[in-house]
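Lecture 7, part B: from sequences to assemblies.

Below are the input chains for today's worked example.
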Amino acid sequence: MNSKQKDLVWVFAEQADGELADVGLELLHKARTLADKMKSEVSAILLGENVEHLCETLFSHGADNVYLLDDPELKDFRTQPYANLITRLVAEKKPRVVLFGATHIGRDIAPRVASHTRSGLTADCTELKIETVTIKRVEHPDLLLQIRPAFGGNIIATIISPDVAIQMATIREGVMEMGEPDLKRKGTIISVPVELDPIEVAVRIIEKHQEPSSVNLKGAPIIVAGGYGADTPEKFKHVYELARVLGAEVAGSRAAVDAGLIEPERQVGQTGTTVRPKLYIAIGISGAIQHRAGMQESQKIIAINSDPEAPIFGVAHYGITGNLEEIVPKLIAAYKSQLH
Amino acid sequence: MSLHTIVLVKQVPDTSNISGDVMRPDGTVNRARLPAIFNPEDKDALELALQLKDKYGGRVTTLTMGPPAAANMLRDTLYMGADRAILLSDRRFAAADTLATSYALHKAILNIGDYDLIFSGRQAIDGDTAQVGPQTAEKLGLPQISYTQEIQNLDLKKRTIRARRAIKNGYEILESPLPVLLTVIKDAVTPRPYDVKRLCTYKRALSKFEIQAMVDDSHDLMWVDELTEKVKSENLYIETWNIEDIDADVTMCGLAGSPTKVHKVENVILSGSEFKKVAPSSEGLNEMITELMQDHIFG
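Predicted structure of the full complex, as structure tokens:
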């Protein structure tokens, strides 16, 4: 491909108000593994205003280089300045792989960058690999295998982009593990001049309102999650009650979010958050692959379901078959009795 | 000039309704067995467009790329209040990824001509990628407002729109010049029910394929051109475009124009169920909790 280019694997390092999003750091660790296989360097792309101090963190999590675009126009995220500047850089340097967090921001700009550069882009991957793939007796080296559940979770698809120069993917927060930072690692800052046409900054932010999230699924040692089997507010109360007694975070499957029983930030799964708590209690969750992808690495899993054939039991350590309205109060009573 | 809004819509298999017989023995999905529905967020997008039309006048055009059966959904858009419906359908569009899809849609939009706003749902429930909206905007050189929750103001003199969009843990209000593409998230609005009068009228709306099928089935001597003219004169024609109609490059469409390819599809194999069956009794639950406490899972 491009033999002069030493950094073939790039990660968009998302930041807001001078703070890096975890997902960018998680992706740097994955990028490191992919790049090692390609004998390549890893680069991060960082946009913002007065954000140079973040480069050290990016180096410590695996970046060899940081493309730094620092400009007052980039203080707050806006689609066109961000997408267009990244597009120009990608089009010029032609990395083989570009990864974005599947956040509001990543999902907003990655499609535009891919569209302009005619790159392959796969959303919400749950695993990434680098392999040489032979298609019709032609070897395609360094292909990014973009692996994700598809079609209602009944299949796992591996997507490749063999005929284009650049392969892109978005990945949800928590899917890749962050790993420990190496504070001694150093890297190179490559400052990129920021030149924007007035038309690229025509969209204005009139007002912005953000509240610090009270939800911390990734950091919770115990999570109690409800699903379609707890599909009424009355049944879902049992989920909240158990979580309260255990001091756990409440979460839900997509079905619970779609039914309006729980906030979208509390969704666990492929299109939500991936969690690895010490204990995950799944109540009335059937366990479609998209949900399991987001919780199967929990240390211990208790599944409570009325259907003994529910796939959730396939990843559980403890399985209880029966009616959640009877089991959960008994479980609470048993837990309380052992506290004394 | 009056407001013209284009709404991108998609007919999708109802993935929330996958039952056993939809899966083939080899693990692939038999799409034909799934009920086809109007993608929910696209319906919300149409509702937002119709609300703007109610307030500011003008007209709404719906556009879809899909198989001939997608005409059913286009009729739904007419029942709700769309003024014109366009079906982009050609075998050579098949197996398109988001890039090839947005290429075809943007060529169709260029073929429609003048417009002020483009709406679409944030994502379709069969892929959840949320890529086609932004990619179509990029190809048209338009700004975009994704995750739109509400339209706050439209100033047709200054040609600007103000919209509220969801961001992480909050929202922001953006002002964009027209034209702009907006993707709409669910719960932004509640789609209106079908208008009974419009339903009576537009249930007779026909696409080119449907006119052809009627002629083929008819025992009378009917001509496609003649029937098409009649349907058009009654304002009941669902415009049906192929690759040539939108002047698209065939190598950019369908499978050929899709950089992403499916390399491998695997059945989901459930790991063996080695879990401990816990009796739903006080004894069973107590035993489990004791074990978890010994493993230092609690506390």
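Note for the exam: The first strand of chain A starts at residue 7 and ends at 12. Keep this in mind when comparing with the next example.
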